Amino acid sequence: MAQEEVNKAIAGEYNLGFEIDIEQDTVPPGLNEDVIKFISAKKDEPEWMLELRLKAYHKWLEMEEPTWGKVEYEPIDYQSISYFSAPKKAPESLDEVDPKILEAYEKLGIPLEEQKQLQGIAVDAVVDSVSVKTTYTEELKKHGIIFCSISEAIRDYPELIKKYMYSVVPMTDNFFAALNSAVFTDGTFVYIPKGVRCPMELSTYFRINAMNTGQFERTLIVADEGSYVSYNEGCSAPMRDDNQLHAAVVELIAMKDAEIKYSTIQNWYPGDEEGKGGIYNFVTKRGICEGENSKISWTQVETGSSITWKYPSCILKGDNSVGEFYSVAVTTLAQQADTGTKMIHLGKNTSSTIISKGISAMKGQNTYRGLVKIGANADGARNYSECDSLLIGSECGAHTFPYLESKDNIGQVEHEATTTKISDEQLFYLRQRGINEEDAVSMIVHGFCKEVFSQLPMEYAVEARALLELTLEGSVG
Amino acid sequence: MSKVLEIKELKAKIGDKNILKGLNLALEEGKVHAIMGPNGAGKSTLSKAIVGHYNVEVTDGEIIYNGKNIVEEEPEERALDGIFLSFQNPVEVPGVNNAYFLRTAVNARRKHLGLPELNAAEFLREMKALVSELGMKPELINRSLNEGFSGGEKKRNEILQMMMLEPNVVILDEIDSGLDIDALRAVSEGINKMKDGKRSFLVITHYSRILDYIKPDYIHVLKDGQIVHTGGPELVEQLEEEGYSSFEEK
Amino acid sequence: MKLDILNALDSDSLLKELKSSSSKSVAASALAKLKVPNKKTEKYRYFDIEPLVTKDWQVADIAEAEPRSEGKKIVIQDGALVNSGDIEGLSVELAEFSDIDSEHFDGLYFLSHLMAKKAIVIRCSKDSSFEIEHIFSKEESLINYRVVILVDANTHVQAYESFSGDAKESFVLSGYDIFVSRDASLKFIKSHTLKQTQYTPIFTSRYKVDSNANLKLSSFDFSFANGLNIIRVELKESANIDASHLLYVSNSAKYGIVSEIVHEGKSSTSSQKAKSILDSGARGIFDALIRVQHSAKWTKAHQNSKAILLESGAYMASKPQLEIYIDDLEASHGSTTGQLDEQQLFYLRSRGIKESDARKMLILAFAHEIVATVDDEYLANKIYAEFERAYYGNYELDCIKTCDGCEELVLKDEQ
Questions:
Q1: Are residues C324 and A398, on separate chains, in Cβ contact within 8 Å?
Q2: Chain B neighbours, 3+ Cβ pairs < 8 A
Q3: What predicted TM-score, i.e. pTM, was given to this entire model?
Q4: What is the β-pairing status of strands A146-149 and A188-192?
């Protein structure tokens, strides 16, 4: 890492904080039925979708914003947010994509055209609210795989959408899910047919670009019997002074013998060291292992956002189904994260693993919050959780709040947690061998996160490591 | 010679893996049988199958003991009838006092045999005598069962239990593993003392070292879930020189 | 009186309504803020609080007659001090008490203080060992009282709490305010067998452990009815707490521990261990938070919960929590819920011990670790016998004599 960049990081300058100048098609701030109708019309949606949106909107109006998270922030004025922002011109091929967008991806380290394609990744890139371009769709089509934006899916596959959307995260599940259900603008839909192993990693990069626009994407992945898919989501947003709201919903459905691997790298703008600016990330992610022997695995590397409120969960309904949650959450500057998972064991011999690594530095506050519930009929269910926290500096905080509820006498729930700082002894040992302090710390931190990074697809693991390094530079010492 | 324990065409698996594949073996009264075989041949599975371990599923065949098939019997029924296994890795049971545990077991066995139960004093007298004979530290009597015991202490504790329970069939699963020379001597002396012409022994081992101390009458070679060869003590030398590969067929 | 109606009142009206002295305004404003708990209150999440706060209670009058002063036992009957004991180094009196823990998280802690006109204040100025017996006899009442124990600096005390009486259908709302002064130590042992038809107890307490002081808390709750122990502990510099809890819950009861240990001073240490044994339909609760404040560097904090579900339908809610605001520390927690160890069970059975006996043996061994934290041998044996009685009594099994002379102890106890 060049000293210049280190300095930037110390100064709180976000190196992904540049802005792309594209003509926007934006509605004025505020939320009412007209805005929802505008969004629906812009997306060329069928009437039934608009009705669902309006229903969600009315439910949302009756709901209260949750306050139980261990995060503190200024109240959000939902009427000051603009709920739609799209590039005016819808590109038809990659050539038509605004070079500035492509350039932005380059700066983000996402060379859409070359590197990812060379590595066989199909990318559904979302800039603000509209899916700009989906590559590899044709290739995937050969296998019967549907990989498109959720807007397209609503138009082209209404039966699948009607069947599965809201089936895992009901529109009234929580305040933010309800808001998303009313105003979601884009996102991704994936359907893997029976017995198909998706031949490539699927990937979507989200990017919040326009000023004062919330981003509300919605992702739905259905893996039919015996299928497999690995899906990667990366996020970044430019620097802003005002907080931007992000409230996404992700639903996963795994049928009998199916497996879904969902990886996230989130490096949205974290705000400055006073907690100014930065993304509010209130996300609802949940998967259901519907059929026997199915598996859902969540891996997340959360380094960005000023507020993170996120609990990727698994409902283990099918017998012998497996849920996994691997997480690295880093809070530095004045970031606050309240994140974890829920593992709901309903089927027999279901098993779940939770590995959570929290790193707090500077004034960061990092909370693991997780629920493990073993239902009375989940005979032989097994859970193992390990939640470790690493503190760097004396101003930060690390909190562990597991809820462990077991109702089955032949099930087993095990939870372990530790909170430590980097030991002086380890640090000294490495330095005595000639490694400078920053490198030594970084080495130890990587070791601490290793278990989680090893769950990421190769090229993302490299990215995650680089990101972690960048995030923590300057917070050591 | 009368057969004490007879295993016929025994098939058993652990999880989905078939381990014993039609094993035949007969133990004679008063004799020492040694089972030798490479790692993974099924030696431990055989011992577990005989005592009814929960991990081993017998899918076919019989284990005849005292004239009846015991495959379906509970582990404690087999134990009360006189089958004793010295475990390869005895589990630690924190909070259960060693003496208290053994007295419960001894009295259960005595009751089963129609003998009067031992009171605490009688029992302790006997236990203390054996503890010193085996060269165990006296404080192990009042410690938690196997908790924090060294490898040698655990094995001696197994032999102590064997001596107190006076079983008819003794299975020794890798009794020498992890023992230093003194412990090995103490343990094998204890075992040899238990030879009375009626009691039968099944010594399961990977190495021949233990057989210098406990002289076997028969050697059985176990490979891939079957007994592939049976012979006299002279087999030990042959095995040491040629290894197991020379015993490919029955 | 219905407790939940108090939620409509502000702090001044609370003082008036509960006829409390203005010296307790701290409690009134805290209660106005925290409210009388209901089923949505996080700390009561797993407990059935609703029936207790919605019922129209007859509040038991506390008699203020002159207590006896004989024997080594302090006796409190239905909240009234009936025997202050004759114990050297101890003074026991009724007094107005206002040094309330303003940071307490529990609304009922403050309510209990507001309702209690006077507290029973026990001051320990010399090393001593004594027993406090709580007797509950008033039926269908709300019995509320407070006890304060002050352990003077450099004084070493053991207190043992026992319980008797039925008080059917009553709600016992009580608890302690305990101050362990500098360089002092307190061993506080509570043993409570709560039968099916008895009162519902909520003991809501605070412990303040001053610098270099040491608190050892051992609680044994064998319960066939609902109840809750709420504990808040503050640790000053180099203070230490060792807390051990053994819980046996049966008969579809809900019983548990809700605790918060706050490390305020540097180099303070805490260790908390809970073991729960749960029968069919029973619910065990272990909701325990350790908070390490910014001021508390070089802290060591460890917490562990182990639960065994004996039958299907038993339910363990375990919520071990760490809240940490400083990096220079050592903290960990662990929690397991499951059944008896299969390997251990097999080992015992392979030696001829029948399965039901082997199970019993392992259960007793499980409990033993917590009982062994009581170093007073007589008390440890007595508590172990109480556990066996609760556990076997329920199963109608014979005692398998884990200690010589346990019958003797039981007989002595019953006389």
A1: yes
A2: C
A3: 0.82
A4: antiparallel
**Contact between chains at C349 and B79 (C-beta distance less than 8 A):** yes
User: What residues of A are in contact with residue C329 (Cβ under 8 Å)?
Assistant: 419-421
- What is the average pLDDT score of chain A? 81
Q: Tens digit of pLDDT for each residue in C73-90?
A: 999 999 999 999 999 999
Subunits close to A (at least 3 CB pairs below 8 A): C
Asked whether B and C share 3 or more beta-carbon pairs under 8 angstroms, the answer is: yes
Q: Which of C289, C355, C354 is nearest to C324 (CA)?
A: C289
Of A399, A411, A416, the CB nearest to C324: A399
CA distance A232 to A215: 18
- Mutation target for B interface from C246, C350, C400: give the one with most B CBs within 10 A: C350
Q: Which residues of B touch C344 (CB under 8 A)?
A: 91, 93
Structure tokens at A114: 């070359």
Residues A445, A390 contacting (CB under 8 angstroms): yes
CB-CB neighbours of C245 under 10 Å: 25
d(CA B86, CA B165): 12
User: Judging by beta carbons within 10 Å of its beta carbon (0-12, 13-18, 19+), is residue C307 exposed, middle or buried?
Assistant: buried
Give yes or no for a contact between C284 and A406, defined as CB atoms under 8 angstroms apart. no
Count of the separate structural domains present in chain C: 1
Report if residue C394 sits inside a domain.
no
* B95:C400 CB<8 A: no
Quick one: CA dihedral A421, A309, A401, A403, positive or negative? negative
Flag whether C325 is in a domain: yes
| CA atoms within 13 A of residue A45's CA, in its CB half-sphere | 26
The CA-based dihedral angle spanning residues C52, C54, C57, C59, taken in that order and rounded to the nearest 10 degrees: 70
DSSP category for residue A96: G
For residue range C96-154, list pLDDT tens digits in order.
998 999 999 999 999 999 999 999 999 999 999 999 999 999 999 999 999 999 999 99
Taking an 8 Å cut-off on Cβ atoms, the answer to whether A418 and C331 are in contact is yes
CB-based contact A440:A430 (threshold 8 Å): yes
In terms of Cα–Cα distance, which of A245, A353, A357 is closest to A302? A357
Instruction: Give the CA count within 13 Å in the CB-facing half-sphere of A278.
Output: 29
A41 interface with C at CB cutoff 8 Å:
no
Q: Token pair for residue C214?
A: 């040491």
Question: In the structure encoding, which two tokens stand for residue C274, read together?
Answer: 């809970």
DSSP-H helix ranges across C134-285: none
Write the burial class of residue A424 (CB in 10 Å: 0-12 exposed, 13-18 middle, 19+ buried).
Answer: exposed
- pLDDT computed for residue C292 by the predictor: 95
Instruction: Please state the rounded mean pLDDT for residues A388-406.
Output: 91
Per-residue pLDDT tens digits of chain C, which is 415 residues long: 899 999 999 999 999 999 888 889 999 999 999 999 998 999 999 999 999 999 999 999 888 788 999 988 999 999 999 999 999 999 999 999 989 999 999 999 999 999 999 999 999 999 999 999 999 999 999 999 999 999 999 999 999 999 999 899 999 999 999 999 999 999 999 999 998 888 999 999 999 999 999 999 999 999 999 999 999 999 999 999 999 999 999 989 999 999 999 999 999 999 999 999 999 889 999 999 999 999 999 999 999 999 999 888 899 999 999 999 998 899 999 999 998 888 999 999 999 999 988 998 899 899 988 999 999 889 998 998 889 888 876 443 334 344 443 333 333 443 3
Q: How far apart are CA B70 and CA B62, in angstroms?
A: 8
Give how far C366 is from chain A: nearest CA, Å. Answer: 16
Range of the domain at C83: 3-339
* C317 located within any domain: yes
CA-to-CA distance for A51 and A158, rounded, in angstroms?
A: 14
Residue C401 forms part of a structural domain:
no
* CA–CA distance, A128 with A208 (Å, rounded to integer): 5
